[in-house]
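WARN no homologs supplied; continuing
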Amino acid sequence: MSRGVQRDILLWLIYSIYLLILLLPNLITPENSQLSWSEKIIRVCLIIVFLFPSKLAVVYIGLPSFIDNIVYRVGNRIFVIVKLLASIIIGVLLYRLALYFYIYPYLYEKSAEYVQFFSFGRFLSNFADLTVPMLFFGAIWLYDARRKADQEKTELELQFLKNQTSPHFLFNALNSIYGLVRKNDINAAQALLKLSGILRYLLYETMDRKILLEKELEVVERYLDIQRLRFGNTLQLTTSTTQETKQLMISPGLILPLLENAFKFGFSDRLNGIFVDLVLEIKEDKTFSILISNHISESEKNEVGGLGLLNLKRRLEIEYPGTHQFESKMENGMYLAHLKLVLQ
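OK structure emitted
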């Protein structure tokens, strides 16, 4: 049984209890004083059962299409409204038939003259009664549909951000290797091999919502190897990390944009080289911390950041709401990017 069906059954049960409380006083009258409490409760339950078809009709015939049209713009608006009105008419007629042929004659012991099947006032009264389950289920379904639509929109945005990261990373990585190829450096083939492993990761692993942290760190190490091959002795790279990952899970591809940014803008005019310092830390409370420091040249200090970091910030808002801290700043010719995540 699906979750939606279970929810609806529970809602109908709650609504039936509400009707039981609402209808029971109608049988506590002098003419019904000879009835026992068990008989009164049975009669109220029968009233609820015989009115159920009318209420199922107004809830399930036209209301789902109306909700879908409001939230997803599915179907023709005029047709959806006509279908909703038709469900109301069917519901009112079923309601009147149940009252006329069974409830009033046998349960309330009223005459046919009292029922007045074609009474306009009674039609309105029955319609008002039917609006209660319509509004009750409609409000809950509308809330669920909007929440689901928002989740789907967020998923699409997240996937778009991930898909945007891959070509952005590929562009920067190929620029890195291009310098090796131009110099006919023997390390170019090895760099391409490591890049192919990273691209395989971006194509397949990033489809998952979470992956093992150690897999993410393996890709980080491959990327650092490419940069070591590219810059050689001109690269001053220091890393500090804790090795125990404790089988923690992380959203894939969050660290690479920080590294890309560091190596893209990390060239130091003063040192005629590139300096990057990387510190990874995993604390006992499952807080993962990464701090990256790199030199910023005067010519590029206004360009640091870019698309990669913008995507990263948006992904953090979506995937780690309230459980992340990200800070980036320039200080004394250095660019500092500090990310903290609470992992699972």
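The mean pLDDT is 82.
OK
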